[in-house]
Design brief:
heterodimer, A: about 50 residues, mainly alpha, 2 helices, about 0% strand, B: about 240 residues, about 75% helix, globular
Chain lengths: ~50, ~240
């Protein structure tokens, strides 16, 4: 496959790329939510509990 | 024996320590499986003879659907352990699994919808498979909503556990929905009893992606459970 074929996805580009994009976005969001929660909890805990 | 396991692995302190040890390795394994699955699924696996390159949506759809059900099974198992043995870490795992499971179910529905449009000609249809997966999403959301309105920790854990166990009935319904009812959705291509109905160069990226999604769930679960251990001052 050359580059334009990859982008085009055999005419299914409008479906394939959004599906992968949403997947990556959901993964990123889950990671962010978990790490953000950790940051918030550590902020409100006293020093010796970290 | 049970007390030894409890103290060595299931006590919050022990869990915090061992999960901290395993997290980097699980994350590394996830990155390896995910990048292999992505690259070979998108660029190397041959196009399907009927669906062309459109079938590549399978590599995110099937793993998210599989993982969404696997997470529910983990949740229900944790619920049993919570009710029978009152293991605190099981109740925490149960509660922390729910939002992750909801996200994976959401992902399965969205990617399925995007796949359905070019192949079936519709984004959505009220058939058995799609409806039962939507019910799975509502089970997750119901569990989260129910737990969020309860103040007492013990009531939260026990009511949540009962709901999680009752909802297990939906899992075989989802699995067999494509066999029991007439549906647009295709039957399973991989089963533990038969040879997979999918060619090896297409199958390998799929298996890698399923492994990657499960590993990602474990990573997020560990992160969330560790947060709860910190929050509840169990260290």
């Amino acid at each position: 496959m050359n580059f334009s074929q990859i982008i085009n996805m055999g005419g299914y580009a409008a479906y394939v790329w959004p599906a992968y994009g949403i997947t990556l976005a959901v993964f990123g969001l889950n990671l962010f939510l978990a790490l953000n929660e950790k940051r918030r909890i550590k902020k409100q805990l006293p020093e010796n509990n970290r | 024996m049970f007390h030894w396991i409890q103290k060595r692995f299931l006590a919050p302190k022990a869990f915090y320590r061992s999960s901290g040890y395993f997290l980097p390795w699980i994350s590394l394994l996830f990155i390896l499986c995910f990048s292999y699955g992505l690259i070979s699924g998108l660029f190397i696996a041959p196009a399907d003879y009927q669906q062309g390159d459109g079938f590549r949506i399978m590599y995110v759809h099937v793993p998210s659907a599989f993982t969404s059900m696997a997470i529910y099974l983990v949740m229900a198992s944790c619920a049993v352990v919570t009710l029978v043995w009152r293991v605190k870490i099981a109740a925490i795992c149960m509660s922390c699994s729910a939002p992750i499971g909801a996200w994976f179910t959401f992902l399965a529905l969205i990617t399925g919808s995007i796949w359905g449009k070019p192949m079936w000609g519709t984004w959505w249809i009220w058939d058995a498979r799609l409806t039962s997966v939507l019910i799975l999403l509502f089970l997750y959301l119901g569990f989260i909503a129910l737990q969020s309105v309860m103040a007492d920790q013990q009531t939260r854990d026990r009511t949540g556990a009962v709901i999680a166990i009752v909802g297990v009935i939906n899992l075989p319904i989802i699995h067999y929905s494509v066999i029991w009812w007439n549906t647009l959705h295709q039957g399973p291509s991989i089963s533990q009893f038969a040879k997979p109905a999918i060619a090896t160069p297409m199958l390998n990226p799929l298996l890698a992606m399923i492994a990657a999604f499960i590993l990602f769930y474990v990573v997020i679960l560990f992160l969330r459970v560790r947060n709860q251990i910190l929050l509840r001052k169990m260290l």
